[in-house]
Predict the 3D structure of the following.
Amino acid sequence: MSSPRKASAYIVSARRSTLGRVGGMHKNRRIEDLASPIIAAALADAGITPSDVDEIVIGNASQGGNPARLIALSAGLALSAPAMTIDRQCGSGLDAVLHAIRIIDGGEAHIVVAGGVESLSNAPWRIAKPKSIYQIPHFIGLEPPAAGPSDIPQPLVASEALAQRHQISRSQQDAFAMKSHLRAETAREGRRFHGEIVPFRASREEMRDESAIAASLEDIEAETAYCPPEGTLTPANTAQPHDGAAIVVVVSEEAWRKLGQPPALQLIASAAEGVEPDREADAPIAAMNKLYGRLNGFDRTSVQAIELSETSAAQAIAVMSTLGIDDGILNSDGGAIVRGHPLGASGAVLVVRLFTRLIRRNPERKTKRGAVTLGAIGGLGLAAMFESI
């Protein structure tokens, strides 16, 4: 099997908002309020005016309808620009970026804005219709009905099962969470997020992810497990739902050359893979293995940056051990345990983070290749590999 060709499409800019707790810093910002400033910043970085955008593709898991059109109008894109919303739950933002690349690679557009946005604080409620007049309505969650009833979300149930299968202890998970906090703090002090995060206001709070606060191992260890007494997952070693937006600008080779051939990310290959719903914590592993299988004779050691939107520390540890990933390569500036998990925007956040690691903070291109991966509710895994040029 021959290696896949690189797509003739270029990610030339990538920005995101801070990620805020549900009911936190973004509680009064609707979905278009979150996305529009990020789109403006990403287009400005690329030297592209909103009216020149051919299309917009947005990932979202909670809004319903086609919020991409609302976002396009709010961001000042041309009325003629088509707008599409993709919902593959947590994988939606990455899918939106990959779809934008395919649109351009297929010759259907020259400039596409893509990414993900999630405003769980303002998302509409979903209520099930009673089957009879004697039943009362009840709220419907984002999880598939097959997940079954539980006091904790299905992704955490799956991560708990994964921890048991891989014999990952509570202390290992807590230590990983602490390391993630330390990495995020080091990155913040080193201004590694500068140029990545778009502040909505000129304040320190708007320049850091809301959950990325100083933590001690004692505080992490003091958290109560979701499933006592044998459970190992806690609020401190798992990723919590957040609000946020992440946007990239993808252009054709013709547009890239007109822009002066700026540094960019180019897609090498991508993969999506399904697993049993009760083993959804394994989905990123399955997706990465499928991705590697598509790269004939590929040297895995050439991948020096991997971004995972981990559901839990247990999942991150399992991904590293199963795939043989060096600890320093995965989430080098902290992961979703620290910054939060904005559902449909999560995959786009990964691409923005990779852009920072391969382009923004890598001017000499010493690190050429990187990958992103995550799982989605229902037992779906996505992965993509990029190269800096």
The mean pLDDT is 92. The chain has one domain: 1-122+150-389. The chain has eleven helices and twelve strands.
